[in-house]
Design brief:
The structure holds two protein chains of two kinds. By secondary structure, chain A is an alpha/beta fold. Chain A has helices at residues 23-28, 50-53, 74-85, 104-110, 123-129, 148-152, and strands at 4-6, 21-22, 40-44, 60-66, 91-95, 114-116. By secondary structure, chain B is α+β, with helices and mostly antiparallel strands. Helices cover 35% and strands 17% of the residues of chain B. Chain B contains 17 helices and 21 strands. In chain B, helix 5 (143-153) packs across helix 9 (283-291). The relative contact order of chain B is 0.09. The chains are: A alpha/beta, B alpha+beta.
Chain lengths: 154, 555
């Protein structure tokens, strides 16, 4: 796990969440994994269907959406679905080798609030990149801490 | 036309700063080639055969004179003093230097222009009817809705990394001058039974390797839901469009594999579930967008016949130009003027900096300071008073932009081909010059009449060859350039794809083959029947049989 940039003070730490499970492993027995006091984190791959996760989200603290390559765009839709359709208020984290500063602005507006930055990324530059645009045309995902005011305050 | 507010300007300025930083990091080695590629593509910057190519967005083809002047100035300062207008109503610069592209974008931003999303797998420049607002057959001016789509699609966070590019065209008239049926989404302004304005929505059209005609997904979409419905279409596409094979990644492949009924069902279900979170257009937003496209204050004039008015007796040259390069305007006393970018010896769509600046001045003098780019690679001065036509013609003639060939065989659409593009198989510009030399007799061209010849240098079909009345496609055969000929295509309403009429031919025989096709047409046509109508009536068969006769060695 590289550097995680978190926008919300969620109280989550790298230690408080168990090893991230694949969606298939988690769905095989959703109740089992909260043992050991650790919170549950699930990895969602581009070919997964977040709809299957929907009914079980109450057990999940982190949904980690994979970005294996810069051109992979399904994760943006997954984040919006989690926030808007399923009302998920836990951490939505972008993970994978494509989580780099130039994509963060799009991710944050889709509802991501944590970024496991790819190797070689600079945390300070990544923070700055979130403020690259002070305005946007589209409505953001309604998560108070990641609406425009956060960025206009730059 | 639309004027930026502070939000539009801020976003474009911030984009310039962002791209300047990205370019700096790339040149400093902090950003890899692979990481830089999708970023530069989203600013229209390709690395081509000899130099980068920069594609500048001209939203729905509309330019102010100040903008055209700036394009001329940019081409002179940063390039080789010319630019190339494309079928998507954009302008391409063929020789910019990478390190100077941020400066070009900064200059563009001073006149409310940019190169945002002119390439890459995202929503591209929205295109429209070059006669918007002046055509007599128009139901409603499409440009306000193009502008709303431009804003909504700019930096859309969810849809900037789609499986493939995504093109939207909007038409407000029953005559389709925007090729809407061969776009990923085509929108037709229409009214429902109560007279409410909305859209007929087509999806899944496109050219390229697998050409398809768009199908109706919704016969009436209320105005307020324009953006929410687009989001539903794009969300289904973003999730289920193929990403494993670039040649099967366009939305048309998804629509075809699911079938339009199943695709519609998915989109409608997604729409119902997500529209409350999307961008519902308010009446005020629509009214605001429309306010920028109100008809100008036209003078109260009578129609005149410039060929006879005031005892005028202009020569044959003006008569030909008037007949072929001007069109009716919905307001009496005005006429639409085409600026032909198809003079002999010039690559179709090319224009020099001097010409751009002079046409900008002409637009200020005679056409309310606005210019449109057509999808057939010409410019239009839309609001010329009929009494100014002779003056306008003289000015254009002096610039070499008055060849009376609009709508004729010489008004061909041609991609840049092998001379510039790294994808091309074939030197389409050489073939264009061959055709220009071969068909230099205007009496012959006028006898042939209205015909659309379209040529692409490879399967990607940037020259729209599938929808040419005559289509020419460059193919590579063991390192040699050959050309496959189709007939019967059209991108107008009731679009059709062309039929291959025989084996491909070597480059030097293209003009001769085209002439034989035209010979068959002249033999078979009914009086005043256009080429495309003859082909539709008799089918491609007689052409197949007779064009590839004994004389030409078919390969």
């Amino acid at each position: 796990m590289g550097k995680i940039l978190r926008l919300l003070d969620s109280g989550l730490t790298n230690d408080s969440v168990g090893e991230l499970l694949t969606q298939a492993d988690f769905l095989a027995d959703p109740a089992r994994h909260s043992a050991g006091g650790k919170q549950v984190g699930v990895r969602v791959a581009p070919a997964d269907s977040v709809e299957e996760l929907g009914p079980h989200l109450a057990r999940v603290a982190v949904v980690a959406i994979e970005f294996p390559a810069a051109g992979e765009g399904r994760g943006y839709t997954f984040a919006r679905l989690l926030r808007q359709r399923y009302g998920f208020t836990g951490e939505v984290r972008a993970v994978g080798p494509a989580v780099k500063q130039d994509l963060l602005f799009f991710m944050v507006r889709c509802g991501f609030d944590a970024f496991d930055l790819a190797d070689g990324e600079n945390l300070a530059e990544a923070r700055q990149a979130l403020h690259r645009f002070t305005l946007a045309y589209q409505p953001a995902v309604p998560l108070a801490a990641v609406q425009e005011p956060r960025f206009t305050a730059a | 036309m639309y004027q930026y507010d502070s939000t539009d300007q801020t976003l474009v300025d911030e984009r310039v700063a962002q791209f300047r930083d990205q370019t700096r990091r790339y040149l400093a080695g902090e950003l890899s080639e692979d990481d830089f590629r999708p970023l530069r593509l989203r600013n229209g910057l390709y690395i081509q055969r000899f130099a980068p190519m920069l594609r500048i967005a001209i939203p729905y083809g509309l330019l102010s004179s100040a903008q055209l002047r700036m394009l001329g100035s940019i081409a002179r300062r940063y390039d080789r003093s010319y630019g190339h207008f494309t079928t998507r109503q954009n302008l391409q610069l063929n020789w910019p230097r990478l390190a100077e592209v941020p400066d070009i974008l900064a200059d563009l931003a001073t006149v409310q222009m940019h190169a945002i999303q002119t390439s890459g797998n995202c929503v591209r420049n929205v295109t429209s009817d070059h006669l918007a607002g002046v055509a007599a057959d128009e139901i409603e001016d499409p440009r306000p809705y193009c502008e709303l789509l431009r804003q909504w699609s700019t930096f859309h966070p969810e849809f900037t990394y789609l499986p493939r590019k995504f093109k939207i065209a909007v038409s407000g008239a029953p005559a389709d001058r925007a090729a809407t049926e061969v776009h990923d989404v085509g929108l037709h302004l229409t009214r429902d039974a109560r007279g409410e304005l909305g859209f007929e929505v087509l999806v899944g059209g496109g050219l390229g390797r697998t050409p398809m005609i768009g199908q109706v997904i919704r016969s009436f979409l209320p105005m307020a839901d324009l953006l929410t419905y687009m989001e539903a279409i794009l969300r289904v596409y973003n999730r289920y469009g193929r990403r494993d094979n670039i040649h099967k990644a366009r939305i048309k492949i998804l629509v075809k594999s699911l079938g339009i009924a199943a695709f519609r069902e998915q989109v409608e279900a997604e729409w119902l579930a997500s529209r409350e979170f999307g961008s519902q257009l308010t009446a005020a937003q629509v009214a605001h967008a429309r306010s920028f496209f109100q008809p100008p204050r036209y003078a109260t004039l009578q129609n005149i016949d410039p060929l006879t008015a005031d005892g005028a007796n202009p020569g044959a040259e003006f008569r030909a130009w008037y007949r072929y390069n001007t069109r009716d305007h919905k307001v009496p006393g005005y006429r639409v003027v085409f600026v032909s970018l198809k003079p002999a010896g010039v690559a179709p769509g090319d224009m020099t900096s001097d010409q751009m600046e002079a046409v900008a001045q002409l637009a200020d003098d005679v056409s309310l300071g606005e210019i449109r780019v057509t999808h057939s690679q010409n410019l239009v001065l839309a609001d010329v008073q009929q009494t100014d036509l002779i003056k306008t013609w003289q000015a254009l003639k002096k610039l070499g932009l008055a060849d009376p060939n609009i709508g004729t065989l010489l008004d061909m659409i041609v991609c840049p081909g092998l001379d510039f593009c790294s994808l091309a198989n074939a030197g389409t510009l050489s073939v264009a010059h061959q055709l220009q030399r071969h068909f230099d007799d205007y009496d012959y061209l006028y006898d042939i009449g209205e015909i659309e010849l379209k040529m692409s240098g490879c399967m990607n079909a940037c020259g729209h060859h599938h929808v040419g009345h005559i289509g020419i496609l460059g193919v590579d055969k063991h390192g040699e350039e050959w050309y496959q000929i189709t007939i019967g295509g059209s991108a107008r309403e009731h679009s059709s794809l062309g039929h291959v009429i025989g084996p491909s031919v070597p480059q030097e025989e293209v003009a001769a083959i085209v002439e034989r096709i035209l010979d068959v047409y002249r033999e078979l046509r009914h009086e005043d029947e256009r080429f495309i109508d003859t082909v539709r009536r008799v089918s491609a068969t007689p052409f197949k049989e007779r064009v590839y006769g004994k004389n030409l060695a078919a390969a």
